[in-house]
Amino acid sequence: MLSGKSSTPSKQILINALTKEVRIAVLEEGQLTEFYVERKEKRGVVGNIYKGKVSKIVPAVQAAFVDIGLPKKAFLYVKEAISFQFEDEEFAVEGEELELPPVEEVLSEGQELLVQVIKEPVGTKGPRITTNITIPGHYLVLLPTINRVGLSRRITNDGERERLRKIAEEIKPPDYGIIVRTAAEGASKEELERDLNYLIKVWEGLKEKAEKKPPPSLLYQDLEIVPKTLRDLLTEEVSEVIIDSLAEYERALSFAKAFIPKLAGRIKLYKGEIPLFEKFQIEEAIEKALARKVYLPGGGYIVIDETEALVSIDVNSGKFKKSSSIEETALEINLKAAKEIARQLRLRDIGGIIVIDFIDLRNPENKQLLLETLERELSKDRARTKIVSMSDLGLVEMTRKRVKKSLGKTLTMTCPYCEGRGRVKSLETVSFEIERELLRILKANFKNTTVIRVYANPSVCEKLKNEEKEILDRISELYCVEIKIIPVEHYHVEKYLISRG
Fold first, then answer.
1. DSSP strands (E only) in 401-457
2. Which of 464, 463, 462 is nearest to 452 (CA)?
């Protein structure tokens, strides 16, 4: 073993691939920290490389729309069309900011480009793209358009960083750039060279394809979720990869033997009677990851609300056992919340602007300790995060790089009843609506009717028969009709039907 990270393996990767939906759970110390889903008919497009054509220049936002063959036109900012702005969450490449020229000087309508998707289409927005192509391997990322060497910022050992940088500079071909990934810690020069040679072959094949195909064309499609997970996540830290599908296990083993041979032995086939995710209590953890409220150890809880503009996270003391002082209690809850919030952001894959409302702290040292704790926990995240500020009220503003839809938006849909409001009409409100509707139709349409039936949700019916009985009796007497209240089990609380006879 070469000099590098020699920590005891603490991660497990569980792969449930028995249906068209492939689910991957990453456990750290037995706790679910990352979760990925791919439906075979709905593969993502991040990482794909296309030959596209500029369809429209938008000077107002210094960007262009590019046709890459998808239903929605892709969006290309001028900075991603001219200068290398390395966006991958795992890496950091130092470089000076360039003064950007107008988009009209860089791009023109009808221009053909090689582009790569860096952000999935979300809602009404098309995918976001860049001309700075990156082709990832297990140990390295090839940069065909920039001549530079970079190292993952998650490689923290100075000696190992120097060793890997030296190897990278020795093996880097002229006019290419490479980034050394976290997985390269402890890897030999031969292993890195083998990875690099494969990536160069991929790029050369891609260029040949681009010369022959007209735009818009797909030139390179990123790996499916299982080999992609092995490529990106299978490191020395992973003790085992357990797969419950024989076909997927054989494919994964073949991939690992070809690209990560020293870790291929950690891939195992699950043969247990109990479903894999049930055995490791993943199903229960997924349900909790979709919940709005998350409880903290010892009491207290956080509330996570995703909106169109931002994500708000509220920290509450709940039934937390009070310490000797209010400040000490608030600090203890906040520190536990900071750790859980960092885990939830990874697990739910939440991105964009995030505002955290911690419990107020007065002591500046306690505020600093809280920020340092949050930063330390966020450093475990592969996605790029940045804490912007902490206000006097305890509000922490931060950002997390958004590449695709969050877990909640992937596994759920907007409620067709409340339409995303998160609330429905109360029993009282629906009861009053029914009473007003009865008065309206009796005045207009049902003059010769002797019986009227009201079909509604059982809870609403109970309300009408009891608390609203006096009002219904008066309506019945006024219009000389019998009003029958009939519960319908499958009716939503807001739904009702009024009919004659």
1. 451-456
2. 464
pLDDT at 74: 96
Nearest to 90 by CA among 384, 478, 470: 384
Distance CA 127, CA 74 (A): 5
Radius of gyration of the chain (CA): 29
Per-residue pLDDT band at 92 (split at 50, 70, 90): very low
Question: Structure tokens of 198?
Answer: 């494969």
Residue linked to tokens 């937390």: 320
**The pLDDT of residue 17:** 93
- Whether the Cβ atoms of residue 339 and residue 320 lie closer than 8 Å to each other: no
Cβ pair 455, 496 in contact under 8 A: yes
Closest CA to 462 of 485, 481, 433, 492: 485
Decide if 456 contacts 496 (C-beta within 8 A): yes
pLDDT of 195 above 50: yes
State the average pLDDT over residues 217-232: 94
Q: How far is CA 340 from CA 313, 331, 337, 377, in A?
A: 11, 14, 5, 9
Averaged over 253-270, what is the pLDDT? 95
As to burial, measured by CB atoms within 10 angstroms (0-12 exposed, 13-18 middle, 19+ buried), residue 456 is: buried
